[in-house]
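Annual report, structural modelling task.

Input specification for the adenosine-5'-triphosphate complex:
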Amino acid sequence: MTQDNLLQVQNLQVEFKTRRGTALVLNGVDFEVNRGETLCVVGESGCGKSMTALALLGLIPSPPGRVRDGRVLFQGEDLLKASEARMREVRGNRISMIFQEPMTSLNPVYTVGDQIGESLRLHAGLDARQARLRAIEMLRQVGIPAPERRVDEYPHQMSGGMRQRVMIAMAIACEPDILIADEPTTALDVTVQAQIFDLLRQLQRDKGTAIIMITHDMGAVAEMADRVMVMYAGRVIEQGSTEQVLSRPSHPYTRGLIECLPELGSSRLAERVELTEIPGVVPSLWEIGRGCAFRERCPQALARCAHDLPPMFGTDAGHTAACWLEAPPLRKIA
Ligand SMILES: Nc1ncnc2c1ncn2[C@@H]1O[C@H](COP(=O)(O)OP(=O)(O)OP(=O)(O)O)[C@@H](O)[C@H]1O
Ligand SMILES: [Mg+2]
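The model returned the following structure:
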């Protein structure tokens, strides 16, 4: 672990008990996040991106969910073993999150100013007046017009895009060490998105904040990410620098995601490009069984993919992929 290493996630396993049985929603997720970098997490719907984020903060809905195994080391401290009191200190202060659905985390009975100010009073020791001034400043920074007036409004008085920006203001007000952003700009138009990205980059430059950004928008990945992690069916199947993963994808799934994009690498990346469909569907978590979960959809599947789960192979410095095609050739025994 280097000094720059803020977070190490090791063998994270999360299961959900349902009437059909127990589904392993995260099946051994490993990754690291360094100070000041942006890690983008991509993959089709249902692959476990939000669950990964929730597990880091101890927010897996339980029951029916449960962390079955693994470690989430935040500056060496295993958060999976931390007390609820310690987690309250960490959440919203050291590690904060912009949730995928803003309404689930805004409280309808408090003004947005009170909600942004709350964590500042709680964690940064500001008094009510200072917290209100800072809340107005945060609303201004996320591009909300007339923040002096808006600060006293309730969430239902705002549009979806504005609520999203209030969430972003809440998440960055305390200048966290790690900001987890789950589809932070999906509800926003392109100009507001650009403004938010500038704000995040500035926070990162000034405070060394690490950002974990979950997104379907490959334009956002190309613009924001230092590194990219691709998930499929509850596992990380490829990781590397943005350049490595977008220009030289190793896993057939990643190649599929990228081939679905028009002219990747061209200036069109600056536009909003959604991940479109690879033929076939993600297998349900009950159907995965042994072997590689992508094999049924994979144009290059080998016989062994049906029964052997591919481990992560290094393809290039810092670039790994869980695919048998990347296995080093067997050496002949003399
Ligand atoms: N309460 C629950 N009970 C059972 N399974 C659940 C529950 N909540 C989520 N899951 C399952 O967990 C898996 C991972 O879900 P997750 O929300 O992490 O996906 P995601 O990658 O964030 O997708 P999206 O891009 O749609 O947001 C999914 O297969 C989902 O069906
Ligand atoms: Mg999600």
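The chain has eleven helices and twelve strands.
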